Amino acid sequence: MLEIDGKKVSPWDLMQSFDADRFGADIFDPKEQARWCRAILIGGLPYMWRIARPVLDEIYRIAEIEPGHKVLLFGEALESCGFIDDVNRLVGPGGEVTTIDIQQYARDMSIGGVPGKNGIIGTFPYDFFGHLPEESFDVVLNLQAIEHAEDWTEAGERLLRVLKPGRRLVMAEIFMVTKELPWKIKADLHIQHLIDKIFAGIGRTLEGRPYYSHADLRQAFDWMLTDTDHFEWRGLEAFWGRKP
C-alpha cells in the first residue's frame, strides 16, 4: 500500500464520494469489498489450467501414466479443471483413479485466517492419506496443492508412503505468488493498482501468500526422491522425482 502523510492507504481509501452515485454505496462497505475481491481472486483455476493445456499434457507424460495404472490424484478443483477425466482416460478401463480434492478445505483455512505451524495463513498439515494402503499407487499426481502444505518434508513422507518404489511423484501449481511476481506487478501502474486493490479488499498482502520454490522442494525431498527436476511456464511451476 501507499503511504501518504505518514498513513498507509489502499486504492479503496482513495475512491471518491461521487463514485457511489455510479456504482452504489456498497463500494465503501468493507464486507462488500472483501466479498467481491475474493470472488475476483479465487475460482480461476478451471480457466487458467485450460490455458495451460499444452503444459498439462507434458505433466502427464512426465508422470509416466500408463493404461491399467492406479493413480492418486490430489489437489484443488480436480473435476472442474478436467484433471479427473484426463487421468481416467490415460489409465483406461483397467486402471483406477483415487481423488482427494482439498479446495474447499483450503478456502476455509485461508478465508478463516488460520495459520499453519509455519505461521503462514492458508497452510495446514497434509494428513489426508492415512486411510490409503502403503505402496499402492503407480503414480502420485499433485495438481494445485503445493502452496497449502505447512511442511513439505512431512507432507512428502505421507505422499510417498503410498507410492510404489521406482515410480514418480509429480507436482504442479499455478502459484498466486512467485518470487518474481512482485517486481513484475510494479512494472505496470495499472496492474499494481488492481493487485493492491484486490488484496487490500480482503485484508491481506501479496507477500503473505505461501510459496515453495523448486529449491525449497528439492531440500524437503532431499532423501526421499531421486532424479528430481522442474520447469516453469507463465507462473505454473512443476516439480517431480522418482521414489527409490
UniProtKB/TrEMBL annotation:
It holds the Pfam family Methyltransf_11. It comes from the Bacteria. One of its GO terms (biological process) is methylation. This is Methyltransferase domain-containing protein. Keywords: Methyltransferase, Transferase. It comes from Chelativorans salis. One of its GO terms (molecular function) is methyltransferase activity. Residues 93-170 form the Methyltransferase type domain.
